Each structure stands twice: as C-alpha cells, then as structure tokens.
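Changelog-adjacent note: as of this version, every example in the card shows the full chain rather than a window. The one below runs 387 residues end to end.
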Amino acid sequence: MRIAVIGGGPGGLYFAALVKQVDPRHEVVLWERGGAEDAFGFGVVFSDGALGGVQAANPELFEAVIDRFVRWESVDVRYRGRTKSHDGYRFSAVGRQALLRLLRECCEDRRVVLRFATSAPPLPELRAEFDLVVAAEGVGSAVRSARAEAFGAHLEPRGSRYLWMGTDRVFDALTFAVVETPHGPVQVHAYPYAPGRSTFIVETTDRVLRDSGLEVPDRSPAETARAVAGLFDGDPDLLGDHRLICTGSRWGRFTSVRNDRWSDGNVVLLGDAAHTAHFSIGSGTKLAMEDAVALAISLTEHRDLPDALAAYEAERKPAVERMQRVAEISREWFERVEEHVGLPLDEFTVRLLTRSGRISHRDLPLLDRAHVERVRNWFSRTLASTA
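Full-length structure tokens:
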C-alpha cells in the first residue's frame, strides 16, 4: 500500500513508524511544512498509564523515551501566595523535541520517506497517487477544512486564550497557579519536563488579555516573555528570579474539534485534526498516538480499506469522546475561575482538583492492563508472522 501522511507531529510520525513496522512493504511518505527541529510546546505530560497501549506497540522506542522522562507524584495548587500539595497522582513528562527526534529516528530506521520543510501536494493529487492519505496536521488541518462537509466537521472556538511558554524554574509537580491581576485572574499550568526546564502555559480570558494590553502582534518573543512575566508581580514567588521563555508562539484560542466522520474515501483524520481535548487534562499527545496504534492495527487486520477505516473509527471514537467530555468540564471550570476566586485555599483547591465535584483524578487516563496486553500480543504475533 502507498500511504501519504500529512503532519510531522507525534501522531503522524508514530503512525508512519508503526505501519512500516507491521508491514515493511508499505511505501510511506510523510510531509511536514515545518523544519525537523521546529517543534514548539516545550514539554508534553502523561498521566500514569497513559502510554500503556502506545508503549506496548513499540517497547524499544519507549524505553528510550522513558529514559528521558521527568516524573512526579503530586499536584500542587498555588493560590494567593500559598501552595497546597496533594499526593496520589503519578505523572511523567518529556521534552516535545526529544520525543519527536526519537520518532523521526524510528521512521528513518524503517525507511519512511520524510519530507520536512515541505508542504504536502494538493489533496486531489495525493488522493489519486496514494492508496491512503492520513491527515495528521493538527487543529488547523487544511485537509479537514477542505472537506469539512464530508467529515461533518464541528469547530467551536472557546473562551480560553492561552500562550505556551517555558521557564528555567523547575517545578516539583504538576502545578495549577491562579494569580489575581488588576485586570482579572490569570491561571498557569506548569510542570517539569527536562533538567532545568518546565512547561509554563498561561491561560486567561479575552477581557483580561484586552485590558492588560498583552496581545501585541508585532512584539518579539523576548518582549512577550517579559510582558507576561509582569502578570505575576502579585505572586513574586511563583517565578522568583527565573525567566519565561517564548519561542515565537502567539496567544491562541482553544478550539473544540469534533467530526461526525473520521474518513472520506481514502482520506482519514488522526489526532487533533479529528479531535481536541483541553490541555488542562494533558491528553492531546496520548490520544494522537493511540489513534496511530489503532489505525496501524486496523489497516493490517482488514484487507478492504473502507472496512479498515470503519474499524479504526469504531475503536477510537468512543474512547476519544469520553475524554472530550472530561476535558470540556475541565475547560469550562478554568474559563470561569473568577467565580471561585475569593474562596479559602482549602476550598478553592478542592474545587479545582474535582472541578466543582464533577471530575477527579480517577477520570484521567489510567492504565488499562487488558488493553495493553491485547496490543502487545497483537504486535508480537504480527511481527512474528512477517519476520
């Protein structure tokens, strides 16, 4: 089979590597308009067990990823200059660039054709030349936009405005911080991901962003970092003497993406092109990589392409929708955080961690041991039969 993959993020790269792993006869070409080292996002976080099935599909690759993990077992809530720690959580994080580098190397070892800094050919051309086109180019997917009616695409821009940054302050845990500014509350989602580095996502509303004068289109990354750091003058211990790092990212708006159908003829959606989940539950990369596993398995188990794509959607869509429901509750709570500001620290912390009693850490992705074993056994059998 000739397979075109559009998008060089974790989902696209992992699918390309896996589908060549299970059948080296496939011809796989991947296009990514950004350069090989242009990754943004600093670090990606995974809750305990979130990589179970993904790791089972390629244990050698993930041994290398795990060697780069930063781990912690608590969630910190920082509010009005005080921090409340809660144990019983287990998380890991890794630098996004490190993860992508390992995935690229895996693709190269399996002779996937990688075309970085290159836009994919027009969709009609790809559909004619390849048996399958995998659109894994993120929330702004051009493929999905071009065929929005066919996919039944639903894009809903939400109230969250966010800026993805880094810092040289190393946090000890997944940290939710809420800081009251003269313009309204601003929240931070921060976690360590590498020695001397943490991800630092700043989230707020349109009103706070407008009144603070922070959204300046032609401001340099360094100027943006200094301006955003000024938001936290009311809590000087949050950053201390440490600096924020901005690599050219701009204030984004979280967009909820859903599709009634994940395939259109020989075109299929994967990862954020098919679905999004708010970053407060840390599952976007996990979901994309699980899509990659499921699509690779479906293509191998079903000789007929329509059957394979239908099986992929039937396997993934219900699981994704469950996570989206949890993520929407979490997103809504953070967008309305102003309603909770003013509560005592203990009550505020409980409301944040349970999102007002509607979710808890039990709703975050946990290790499904039966699923992990099924994936591991499937790949073992398949690789043995093709050896």
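Structural remarks: The domain at 2-40+54-68+96-157+255-334+364-386 is CATH 3.50.50.60 (FAD/NAD(P)-binding domain).
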